[in-house]
Amino acid sequence: MASGGGVEEVSNKQVILKDYVSGFPKESDMCLNTSGTIKLKVPEGSNAVLVKNLYLSCDPYMRGRMKQPIPGNETYIEPFKPGSPIVGYGVAKVLDSGHPDFKKGDLIWGITGWEEYSLITETQTLFKIHHTDVPFSYYTGLLGMPGMTAYAGFYEICSPKKGEHVFISAASGAVGQLVGQFAKLLGCYVVGSAGSKEKVDLLKNKFGFNEAFNYKEEPDLHAALKRLVVIYAVINICNYHMRLD
Fold first, then answer.
1. What integer is the mean pLDDT of 183-201?
2. What's this model's pTM, rounded to 2 decimal places?
3. Cα–Cα distance between 34 and 138 in angstroms, integer?
4. Rounded to an integer, what is the distance from CA 118 to the centroid of its chain?
């Protein structure tokens, strides 16, 4: 459809958070709004960016944003607003821009809405995609926020050396599994903890962790780590004797 002045206006499906969530989120806590529309033009004089969303990411931190805020107990990120679209990381294509760093046709990743089209005014959260020879969905994971968090935490802050022991909690999560693989590539001995047998199997059999354990079954974390380090030492001794033989 077209609006006055010749600016195209189209329907815009949105995933709306109906109200603050207590307990485990359910599908009924959200609804799909199909009656909304959006003009495919950035307002005159604005430095906003209008995008067509291609991929959206559902991340664990978003659960905390669904809770009703408690005064004095604020977190690093604001809660969602009931009655408004959920927002999170995504990949999108620029349709119109008032910002000098972005132009029509650019591909970006960053904070956007759970909707078909978004008018993004907080453009400091956006990153232009320069490498298009990989699946764009990678920019919601390995090449996006989880990947940047894992890379900076491991290489810039932790900065271990080859042969050192690395322990990762929440190791089956989006960030933890990447840190574990970075550590393995560096030549570290990697131990991870997770909350179920299935996750432990995933860490050991798919992501290449040397050892992993279910923290819910370990009353003493220190003892669990000590036990796994002893296993590593015994394996190394056996390998050493095999080389001598």
1. 95
2. 0.81
3. 28
4. 19
